[in-house]
Amino acid sequence: MTPAHFAFSSAFMLGLAGLAFHRTHFISALLCLEGLMLSLFIALSLWTELFNLTHNSASMPMILLAFSACEAGTGLALLVATTRTHSTNRLKNLNLLQC
Amino acid sequence: MAPPIYSALIISLGLGTTMTFASTHWYLAWMGIEINTLAIIPLMSQNHTPRATEATTKYFFAQATASATLLFASISNAFLTGEWDILQTPNTLTSSLITLALAMKIGLAPLHSWMPEVMQGLSLLNGLILSTWQKLAPLYLIYQIQPTNSNIFITLGLLSIIVGGWGGFNQVQLRKILAYSSIAHLGWMILILSFSPPLALLTILIYLLMTFSLFSSFMLTRTTHINSLATTWAKIPILTISTPLVLLSLGGLPPLTGFMPKWLILQELTKQDLAPIAALAALSSLFSLYFYLRLSYAMTLTMPPNNPAGTLPWRLNTRHNTTMMSLTTTSTICLLPVTPAIMALLPF
């Protein structure tokens, strides 16, 4: 495993752990999701620089950025919708569907 | 919802799955899956009720995490082998990570926790789209991995069959029961995937037919609880004949269609010298049969001593469009005798 691979893998794993173990706020989960996407952006850019020396797929990180922005927008819209319906963004309040 | 927005979302839903089906590059497949997720979120939350919003939020988190993990595994594969081709994914750690990410996408155990709650909060039509259309793209990718190491698939499959049966034991809400039934059926599918991919394709097709038929029956009477199932006899009596047969077909009883995939899977597993796994899978699907039987019992085999449910509703002429429902219900009940013809159609 090259140092670059290790770097973005550990960044991704930290973000994933943050997303899996978030406990109180909705928005901290969204931030971890953004961190995941950022580590993947760096990973794609590094791949283009290190391995794809013809740079013929150098647009991959930019497309990832576009999709990540769409996903972040969707997440924020859901945050607003949750705050409107559940009156808070605490995750313990999302307990309507258990029964 | 305004018609232009609604049609744009439906077209995006189709576009996402089509992109994934048409791709040989992992990146394009990931993009198709992302488009699918983004397109269904507004459809799921268009009700603006608290339950729908909560279901959409949980669905969004599960799917976004799984998509990110899928892309991470693809990029790791590109770093390690330099390949982005889907058919050329050799069986390393990254292939297992891709399988786990796709398993979370479709709701296999042990990554299934979001599925019952999300299904519970959605309307029946959205639940139908979630159980049928949204599963197609990830299942296609799992099918294409063409694994040779079967351990992870057997583990996912057996766990899903057991969890899908055991989890549905105590449920009275129909959408949660349908979620657990989906987990169990996809468990059967992924159990056989490493041994005979065409059989997995057969299982998923039969499952889609049966689920469509059951959801259509529930949409016709707009029932979401066993209590309202019990009054179906007063509204649409023919459903008390067809729906129990569909439920028993989901449970895998001969001579109904649902027996076909289970039979062929057990036969294939026995041929591969995995008879204990086959026995465990067959015994675990008895759990699911129990709650399907309970639904049939509530619908058909109970009759109140007086007739309050039959006295109140007006018998008006309603125009239900039952084309797809009748086609899928007939297929769910009557297709077992044509098993050789169906097997001839698949690339065995």
UniProtKB/TrEMBL annotation, chain A:
TM helices/strands, residue ranges: 6-22, 29-48, 60-82
Any one cellular-component term (Gene Ontology): NADH dehydrogenase complex
Entry-linked InterPro entries: NADH_UbQ_OxRdtase_chain4L/K, NUOK/Mnh_C1-like
Record keyword Mitochondrion present: yes
Keywords: Electron transport, Membrane, Mitochondrion, Mitochondrion inner membrane, NAD, Respiratory chain, Translocase, Transmembrane, Transmembrane helix, Transport, Ubiquinone
GO biological process: ATP synthesis coupled electron transport
Membrane topology: Multi-pass membrane protein
UniProt keyword Membrane present: yes
Major localization class: mitochondrion
Reaction(s) catalysed by this chain's protein: a ubiquinone + NADH + 5 H(+)(in) = a ubiquinol + NAD(+) + 4 H(+)(out)
GO molecular function terms listed in the Swiss-Prot or TrEMBL record: NADH dehydrogenase (ubiquinone) activity; oxidoreductase activity, acting on NAD(P)H
Pfam family, one: Oxidored_q2
Subcellular location: Mitochondrion inner membrane; Mitochondrion membrane
E.C. code: 7.1.1.2
Family: Belongs to the complex I subunit 4L family.
Function: Core subunit of the mitochondrial membrane respiratory chain NADH dehydrogenase (Complex I) which catalyzes electron transfer from NADH through the respiratory chain, using ubiquinone as an electron acceptor. Part of the enzyme membrane arm which is embedded in the lipid bilayer and involved in proton translocation.
Protein name: NADH-ubiquinone oxidoreductase chain 4L
Organism: Poecilia reticulata
Gene: ND4L
From TrEMBL, chain B:
Protein name stated in the entry: NADH-ubiquinone oxidoreductase chain 2
Keyword Transmembrane helix: yes
Residue stretches making up the NADH dehydrogenase subunit 2 C-terminal domain: 289-343
GO molecular function list: NADH dehydrogenase (ubiquinone) activity
Stated role: Core subunit of the mitochondrial membrane respiratory chain NADH dehydrogenase (Complex I) which catalyzes electron transfer from NADH through the respiratory chain, using ubiquinone as an electron acceptor. Essential for the catalytic activity and assembly of complex I.
Reactions mediated catalytically: a ubiquinone + NADH + 5 H(+)(in) = a ubiquinol + NAD(+) + 4 H(+)(out)
NADH:quinone oxidoreductase/Mrp antiporter transmembrane domain segment(s): 23-287
E.C. number(s) listed in UniProt: 7.1.1.2
GO biological process: mitochondrial electron transport, NADH to ubiquinone
Xref: PANTHER family: NADH-UBIQUINONE OXIDOREDUCTASE CHAIN 2
UniProt source species: Poecilia reticulata (Guppy)
Localization: Mitochondrion inner membrane
